[in-house]
Amino acid sequence: MSQEALSHAAGVSVRALADMERGRTRGPQRRTVQALAQALGVDEAGAARLEQSAAAGRPRPRAATGPTGSGTLALPRDIQDFTARGDALARLAELVPDAGAGLPAVTVVAGQPGLGKTAFAVHAAHRLAPHFPDGQFALDLHGMDAEPTSPRDALARLLGAIGVADAAIPSGTDDRAGLWRSLAGERRLLLLLDNAACEFQVEPLLPGTGASLTIITSRQALAGLESVHRTDLALLRREETVELLSRIIGPDRVGAEAQAARDLAGLCGHLPLAVRIAGQRLLSRPHERLGKLVARLATEARRLDGLQAGSLGVRAAFALSYRQLPPRSQTLLRRAALAAGADFSPETGALLAGLTCDEAAVCADELTDAGLLQSDPAGERYRFHDLLRLYAAERIDAEDGPDVRDAALDRTAHWMLRRATAAALHFDVDHEQTASQGDPDPATAPVGRERARAWLEAERAEWLAALRRAHGTGRHRQVLDTAQAMHWFSDLNQHWEQWVEVFRQSADSARALGSRQEEAVHLNYLAWAYNLCVHDPRAALTAADSALAAARECGDGLQQGWALGYGAGALHRLGRTEEAQERLRDSARCLASEESPHGRLAELTILNSLGTLLRQAGRAAEALEIHRRSERICRAGIPGRTVEVVELYHAVARQQIGNDLAALERWHEAEAPLRQALAAFDAAQMPAWSEQARLDLGRVLGATGHPEARATLLAARDALAALRDPRQVEAAEALAALDVNGACTA
Where are the alpha helices (DSSP H) in 664-708? Predict the structure, then answer.
């Protein structure tokens, strides 16, 4: 068996096995021997002989230890290719003056598997060794083994290392701790306690007085230790990752395939252990190209297999921590790998793992303390390291199987869509709800628009994945209900490209249910998304034409009007201006006969669009009249619609009126309606709308030489670029024109 295979079967670390094979450990603990015998499948007689050999090795002789800490607890060899961690090393060095003042300093180096905690601690100990002339000792506490080193045994080794004879070492743990603290308080010592299991294990080993420095490494946070310094090791930056690779295999080899080296760094997740394994693998194959390993690791299913070099393996490192977890936390870890987004909430973890939300939160905190999840610094959300997510997904296949996996995904998708639908209905003008009707858990449902919006944005990846699953499993009515509820909410986040997928699926679901009227509705939503979210007018025209055919077939005048309007928008973007104007006039005539509030809002939209096209065709005066007509409708109010909804339409009319006045070079008159429109969009938190209005206002301010012009245009340009809005080009051109004309600047 390989060391990794035996480690996995016995629950004994690869490091411990390697120490036994090299003779560094000659008397392993009885439970360790029993675990090895069981894993190796030896019979009772063989197990007895194995235990006899271990027992003979347990009374280890102690070599005399000089000031440098030579002997059984000497510092491990430092690695020559140690890379980065400069800031962490500097902060650790700052603890030495405290130790010099007679205050024992303690630092805890904790974090996820593979961060290089031991390598960092050993490197730091070697650098700081000259400050501690009375001894530097390193003790492996075997925190990941089935039987970690007990405080009693650890104290015996420490006392022996500083010269206490066997006969003089007390038998009790408390007496040993007292003697150790008494002797350590008189010395200037550096103590490295590697691979600690818990606070209980290390507390008796910490000097109470004196000028010592103790460095503790652990995969656990050891949050219960008081008055300690904490060294947080982050993932390497990309340049640091490439530098480490260069130090392992040589700069010439990395320089010859610079892009492959950067790609390899990304595939290793910038995790030091993974980079070291990749480097060692390449070092053992001096003629193998980096690109070959990159190609192998690019396939997720093969990545953990590829990150294996001799006894070093990323999978084995993760497995050690995983096996230490209680069953419930193991379940949460592997099921959370099914979450759709880059991070997940305890709510999502609970649904996937079949736990209550409180249970999932406790498990998530436990996993964070174990370094297996990373918590968001601001909110209650958690994320995986990329390689840990792959490992967790492997455990799903091995321990749960496809039936349990599918049940977890279906349960989560059904719940998520119910909450997403209830949250989105806060924005639907036909519901005007303040409570979350239909929510699967009203007690925890987001209350009010602000909280509903925050939830929908935070869980966007999750409810979108749930919509995909519902569509794929034939739950078409739920898909339609969710997409319909999202209609008004989508206007607030027009810059989300995902709306194309949402409404494409809902149109497919309507078609699957044989509802031509709903198909027309959702094809119109899809045309809107193609036009305004991804700026694809050809696809928008196709969707609008399909919506028009469906609406005519079922005699829905409202949807015919919308389809004509969305088709006109696509034609305009394709440069077919006259056809666009004709469709808009047809749409306005179609909607004029619609008496419902929906019809009035649709008519307002079409009138505003028609006026915009007329202005762009050089007919600004006609456009102004049409937009004034829209404003009059808004001021008169629309029965069945709230003041807030009508005010948004009024803001659109005001924005267009400002642009009409600007086209007529009535610059000073244009400023007020544009400021009013911008204020309304900002108040409604509609960035895709407000930034376009900001651009329009900036151009008017530039024409009048207003001192706010430059700042307004700069803000609009940057925001439009972040929204991937094509009008960012207009903003850049307006700024350039401002420079050329020598306008006043802010």
Answer: 667-683, 687-703
Stretch 386-392: mean pLDDT: 96
Report how far residue 391's alpha carbon sits from residue 113's, in angstroms, rounded to the nearest whole number: 12
Q: How far is the C-alpha of 18 from the C-alpha of 289, rounded, in Å?
A: 30
Give the model's pLDDT for residue 25: 67
Residue 461: pLDDT above 60? Answer: yes
- β-pair partners for 108: 216, 230
Angle at 374 between CA 371 and CA 378, to 5 degrees: 140
Rounded Cα gap, residues 277 and 387, in angstroms: 13
**What are residue 136's DSSP bridge partners?**
190
For 55-111, list the strands marked E by DSSP.
Answer: 105-110
Task: Compute CA distances 400 → 407, 593, 638, whole Å.
Answer: 10, 59, 56
Using alpha carbons only, give the angle 13, 15, 19 rounded to the nearest 5 degrees: 120
For residues 126 and 320, give the distance between their C-alpha atoms in angstroms, rounded to a whole number.
Answer: 27
Residue 383 token pair: 């994320």
Task: Give the model's pLDDT for residue 28.
Answer: 75
Tell the residue number behind the tokens 């590829």, with chain if given. 306
Cβ-in-10-Å burial (0-12, 13-18, 19+) of 131 comes to middle
pLDDT, tens digit, for every residue of 601-646? 899 999 999 999 999 899 999 999 999 999 998 998 888 888 888 8
The structure's pTM equals: 0.78
Question: Please, what is the Cα angle at 581 between 580 and 587, to 5 degrees?
Answer: 90
User: Does 684 score more than 60 pLDDT?
Assistant: yes
Q: What's the alpha-carbon Rg for the chain, to the nearest Å?
A: 34
User: Which residues share a beta bridge with 137?
Assistant: 191
- 745 pLDDT more than 60: no
> With 0-12 CB in 10 A as exposed, 13-18 as middle and 19+ as buried, what is 616?
middle
How many angstroms separate the Cα of 502 from the Cα of each of 262, 486, 525? 35, 9, 9
Instruction: State how far the Cα of 295 lies from the Cα of 301, in Å rounded to an integer.
Output: 12
Check: CB of residue 337 under 8 Å from CB of residue 396: yes
Sequence-distant (≥ 6) Cβ neighbours of residue 677 within 8 angstroms: 651, 652, 654, 655, 658, 693
Q: 79 — phi, psi (to 5°)?
A: -95, 135
Residue 654 and residue 670 in contact, taking contact as beta carbons nearer than 8 Å: no
CA angle 514, 547, 426 (to 5 degrees): 80
The number of residues making up the chain comes to: 746
Q: At what angle do helices 14-22 and 3-10 cross, to 10 degrees?
A: 120
- Rounded to whole angstroms, how far apart are CA atoms 17 and 603? 77
Rounded Cα distance, 355 and 363, in Å: 10
DSSP 441-472: -GGGS--HHHHHHHHHHHTHHHHHHHHHHHHH
β-sheet bridge partners, residue 110: 218, 232
Burial (CB < 10 A; 0-12, 13-18, 19+), residue 738, is buried
- Percentages (nearest 5) of helix, strand, coil residues in the chain: 65, 5, 30
Residue type, 667: W
Query: E strands along 346-424, which residues?
Result: 374-375, 382-383
Quick check: helix, strand or coil at residue 320? helix
pLDDT on residue 60: 41
Cα separations (Å) of 106 from 91, 218, 230, 556?
A: 12, 13, 8, 75
User: Tokens 């036994």 sit at which residue?
Assistant: 20
SS3 call for 484: helix
Strand-strand pairing, 374-375 and 382-383:
antiparallel
Q: CA-CA distances (angstroms) from residue 341 to 240, 464, 468?
A: 27, 10, 14
- Confidence at residue 743, expressed as pLDDT on a 0 to 100 scale: 43
DSSP tag of 255: H
